[in-house]
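Weekly structure sync - notes
Attendees: PM, LS, DV (DV joined late)
Agenda: review two folding runs queued last week.

Item 1: First target. Sequence and structure tokens pasted below for the record.
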Amino acid sequence: MWRGPYEEGTLFFHLDEFAKDHPKDLLAVLAVNGRPTDLQLLRDVGEGTIDEVVGAIDEAVASGLLVEEASHRGPRYSFSHALVRQTLIEELTAARTLRLHAQLAECLAVRAVAHPDRWLEAIHHAIEGAPLLGFDRAGEILLAGETSVEQLG
């Protein structure tokens, strides 16, 4: 795929430089999640130890691919530009996208027990990842989320 000019300082240069030293999985998790994402979720769904994830995030922030924002639950990371996410999404295979949705659904469902505001995210990823997650498991996440949201309100 032609991605435009390849010069130092361009988005594509930074993406390719990052990918030389780090698995793209970290950025793929962030792209599929589609919203600011915390360190723990990146580690749980992605590859590598927490030290490797932190090192990769530090480099991605320094290169301008990611931005860090403060949250009451700790720092969260998102892409510096929508084009970064779009480029990564376009490069993912359907199978990898399904795998990441399924993993995100499972991780977010566990977290949603303590943080009910995470159920909508878990449900979204369960629906998107249902072919790999299994339709029964996706339904369980949907029902658990629905029950939790009804109890809140």
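Item 2: Second target, run right after the first with the same settings.
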Amino acid sequence: MRPGLLLVPFFAPALLAQGIPEGPEPNNTPTTATAIYAGAQAEGNISVGGDQDWYLFVLPTNSNLMATTGWATGVTVVVDTVLTLFLSDGTTMVGVNDDRGLDRYSRLELVNLPANNAQNPFYILEVKHYQVTGTGAYVLDLQAKPPTSVVAE
């Protein structure tokens, strides 16, 4: 490697961007979820074993959604996260991911996720540690893009 050349992980914006604080505890239930929006990053912390952090967001149009977790600023320990997406009722699971991201972080990708409506006015995303006693800080990155159309041949 050349002197002065620095390699930065592909998720470097998550490390450098200012995130939305997870909100005051408790935000460990669907009814106490911290509001976030697509295109934002949230800084969270699984502060004690069994803690869950919940985030609420709205999709105004059908979207391809990607939620990822990664290293929090100044943290060098990998936090083994699990991401679970629910409908606004807080019980109907839409998707779940463990370890698809870098190291033991999570990356949840959903294609053509329906826009919110009167029956489902928002989505709720849960972040928890894989281990019941696990703890640690993380950054949550939430991205929503217009769905790609399939071209018939």
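Discussion on item 2: The longest helix spans residues 12-16.
Action: LS to circulate a short write-up before next sync.
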